[in-house]
Amino acid sequence: MSAHISLPHIVLQGPTANVKFTSSAQQGASIRLPMRNREDHVAFLQRKFNSEWERSERDFVVSHAVRQGVYLQFKSSPGFDLKIQSLEDMRSKKIRLCNVRKVSEPIVDRATGTEEDKEVVYATVFVANEKRQFFLNKFNQYATQDLESGNPKNGDLINGIDDLQKAIAQSFWLDDTDLLPGETSQWCEVWLSSDTPEVETRFVALLGRLQILHREGRIRFPERTVKLIYANNAQLETLTLHSDDIAEFRRAKETAKFWVEQSNREQSEWVQDFVNRIVVDRESLHSICILDTGINNGHPMLQLVLDHTDCHSYDQNWGVHDHQGHGTLMAGLAAFGNIEQYLEDTDTIEVLHVLESVKILPPPPHQNNPELWGDITSQAISRAEIQAPLRNRIICMAVTSLDNRDRGRPSSWSGKLDQVCSGSEDGNKRLMIVSAGNYSSDDIRQIGNYPSNQQNDSIHDPAQAWNVVSVGAYTQLTNVTDPTLRGHAPIADVNQLSPFTTTSYSWDPKWPIKPEVVFEGGNAVVDSSGFVSECNDLSLVSTFYQPRLRHFESFRMTSAATSQAAHFAAKIQVKYPNYWAETIRALMIHSAEWPDQLKRQFASDDSKGQIANVLRVGGYGVPNLDRAINCASNSLTLVSQAEMQPYEISIEHRNGKRQKNYKTKDMHFYNLPWPTEELMRLGATPVQMRITLSYFIEPGPGEVGWKDRYRYPSHLLRFDLNSPEETQDEFLRRINAAVRDEENGHPGTSSAADHWVIGSQNRDKGSIHSDIWNGTAVDLAASNMIAVFPRIGWWRERTHLGKMESPTRYALIVSIRTPEQGVDIYTPVSQMVSPLVPVGIRTEV
Questions:
Q1: How do residues 598-626 score in pLDDT, each as one tens digit?
Q2: Is-contact 774 755, C-beta < 8 A?
């Protein structure tokens, strides 16, 4: 466990200038190595290698193990690297790199006596008996041979090794060390070093001989097979003595099945413990308003976060109770997030937001007229706002249409949501979280045609709304323990798209990127005949609406993902109560990243065309709360909330006549406070910058313009960044025709297109735009000018509606991330913005 300093965002007071507007090679980081005394260092490593090898062989004799090699753990010096690729022999496959762990460890400076956390790299390597001389030969070459440069041969490898030892069970443990089993057995994942059936068969036979309980299923990845075993620490240690095929150990995740299949008496005990640890701010001005089937606030876990006065209904004849259960399931995750995490520990549960409920789905025999869904939603929100007008409210809705005929085109329902969020009717802008919708086939077995069906099943109405955060689903749940599902396999692999979600893959590219983010939505299983089943193992756990029967119920699909997204947004809102709805929305997207597995599932390379495929199924990825709310010394986030006027009416006199001219007006220019000196010192080190621009559009008036994206939004905003070679004057003249003249026209420069991951063709959709800039620190040092400027919308084109000179506001988020090399980019930027450096909060991570 290591210390982490959490620093707040750096808030800018606005753009550097408001300018009149008229539209118009990365290098790899060098390896960090300590200086060594060549003779002493090689003698130490030779001695350690031989002693640890012999210690391993003695253990084999004592345990009667029949092994073809040994496991060794190599360690880097604190703050330095290991040349990982040189620790294995890919040709013979007799020397295999099993795993690499990076651990932050407290290191005492001998000169000053102060303690500082530094990263240490551990690599576990399998070395076959016949390859024992492989490393000894490299040590000898290091000691006796020089390169043309005069440096010792194998110097990058040998200088990087600070120590080595016989591997133990902890050498294979890739989870938090607190989860490593002790004397009590736990369900654990064993990651074998091959995906061949022969290796699995051999390992299962070993489990039988050692009498270690295991599950029949497996998950296969390239060069890995994952098995589930029930073992304590001693048994894990024994496995490392008897098997040549182990790569990793991880703690298996508890599933909803564990909680929902207990008796209600057992569930009640868990709930009581949970309730005893809850600390709720009942007077909080931050809330999540859930539009659904109602919520049962009599549930012991919910009664502290949902007051009866905050339970409403669109129609008073329906009552406010939950007649079906879905709303109460939504409430559990919206209030607490990952409930299983809290059930498994003993920490205090702090909840700094409250819930509100508005029932918009009627109990039988009542029914809603489909044409009124937009109105129903709007009126439902008004119910909550009238009751508690001072609250900062996040609206959460996982109710969508059953069909997918819109395919990105605005509907009356989605248009109403855009209107509600924009505040065009009452000036009150709102943050709304909406589910993307679930795969709509009546036959669940069709989910098995994965992922092509998910790509072709469109986001459901109203999630195509431009201003809402639409939430899709991915999954990390792949562990099936239910004995009745023996022989079943999860449809999605870990960190891939959930089989329940819908996407905008089939949409015309002109429409917004949907969903914007994905959260955990669960998984399904399929047997050898293709029969698909849902199961508790691959679901989340939430609150059941009839606690007299049971307190917990399994929960999955995009509804579960959406309630988690609302909880995530509430965390940001509580931390930064003065942030606008546009800003919280921006931070959710800005903090998101694609899991490698999800990215590889839909992109064969990193070209912008392939990245477009990933965007259309997984949005910008999975949001990270720490990145959304905190900075660190080696990373910073700049936040600007500003207002501009996109268009203006100017009066010109031509041929003696007075004439109105309708044109663009403002461009905001940012010359950002930048850690130039620190970046220059990093030189060719790869760094990353991200820019996100978020604003709300007012939807076009009437169906006449809704099939054309250029007539649906009231206005559009864009951002651009100067390329490293551009001066301020060149940058402004490139993007802004208003600053050019006869002598100083277009400068002939271009944007830094090669640095962007997503690219303007992909990111300039909808009303939120986010992109990632990759390059060297020295290039980033010269790339600190950003322009925010308007594009055409109906405010300008339909002047008779009187919105031509309307202002708009936006949030601009800019962040820099650098490798952890003790560099501090936060402090100098903070001091440029304010002489008072924010005090960091020390947390344990």
A1: 999 999 999 999 999 999 999 999 999 99
A2: yes
